[in-house]
Amino acid sequence: MPEPGTTAPSADRRPLQFGVTVDPTSADPGAPGRLARVADIAGLDLVAVQDHPYQPTFLDALTLIATLVPQTRRIRFVTNVVSLPLRPPAMLAKAAASLDVLSGGRFELGLGAGGAPDGIASMGGPRRTPADSVAALEESITVARLMWSGGTPHFAGRHYTLDGVHAGPVPPHPINIWLGAIGDRMLDLTGRAADGWLPSLPYVPPQTLPARHARIDDAAQRAGRDPATIHRIYNLTGHIGPTGSRPLNGPVALWVDELTRFTVELGMTGYLYWPNRDHERQIELFANEVVPAVREAVSSARRVDGR
After folding, report:
1. What is the secondary structure of the chain as a DSSP string?
2. Which parts of the chain sit beneath pLDDT 70?
3. What are the recorded GO MF terms, alphabetically (predicted)?
4. Beta-carbon neighbour count of residue 124 at 10 Å?
5. Measured distance CA(112)–CA(66) in Å, rounded
């Protein structure tokens, strides 16, 4: 059982979510659709798509998601994560609302401050200081929510403005804004303004999660928010196979043990799996063998703890 104080408040109160990341590859433009259909049929919750517009082999993330929506029935989509400096937030909010309308409420917005400054600058985007990047991201959250509320909002920020635009369409469901956050400023912003946190295991190792949860929770409480309302979705890479080693290269049992630990002891509430090879088979193994076992193990652990 976890040591006192190591489990985020959200861990026992948010329903677990499981999904996969598909590459926005132009080399095989049919591949994302095939993988999204596999994930949808297998009963996963989310399909995530990277947004790296400066990568010449990548399709545009939002355009790609628009093509995946009609190929699926129930699975939700999330950008993982949008490069804000290359996406004016009012237009980004318009695109997000459009995708939500077209999908029947199946779109969530993953946002980032811009983690590839050279690539962003190469496309004419701004080079921002870390402080300005976070400030611009915070303004973009406000802009997006105003654009989704309808009416004629006004907003005067240092980076972005709205001047009585006729906002709409109103999304059919409250679109979540999840932030790809690592540093303290971004974690604070996640706590005070976002609906979720999207860290990646290679950059945010498991042993660092409790301190980062605490930072998010403190910021949420200072803003008068309940930390338990904030999703914590972990991006995972690895391979499910007969042999391997921790953290996530090995048999199903290893995956089940690790994801259960990440949930019960380290406070995560969801997982996005990005297979490093054999993508279709890996998605099937994840959905059909790992996910049900993790759900059951987590439920059992919580019953034992009386939570």
Report:
1. -PPTT-S-GGGGTSPPEEEEEE--BSSSTTHHHHHHHHHHHTT-SEEEE---TT-TTBPPHHHHHHHHGGG-SS-EEEES-EEGGGS-HHHHHHHHHHHHHHHTS-EEEEEES-S-HHHHHHTT-----HHHHHHHHHHHHHHHHHHTT-S--EEE-SS-EEES----PPPSS---EEE---SHHHHHHHHHH-SEE--BTTTS-GGGHHHHHHHHHHHHHHTT--GGGSEEEEEEEEEESSS-BTTTEE-HHHHHHHHHHHHHTT---EEEEEESS-HHHHHHHIIIIIHHHHHHHHHHHHHHHT-
2. 1-13, 306-307
3. alkanesulfonate monooxygenase activity
4. 8
5. 20
Which of 39, 22, 44 minimizes the C-alpha distance to 31? 22
Per residue in 99-132, pLDDT (tens digit) is 999 999 999 999 999 989 999 999 999 999 999 9
Q: Which residues contact 12 (CB under 8 A, 6 or more apart)?
A: 302, 305, 307
* CATH code for residues 9-32+44-239+265-274: 3.20.20.30
CA distance 172 to 46: 18
Domain boundaries, the chain: 9-32+44-239+265-274
Pairing of strands 270-275, 17-22: parallel
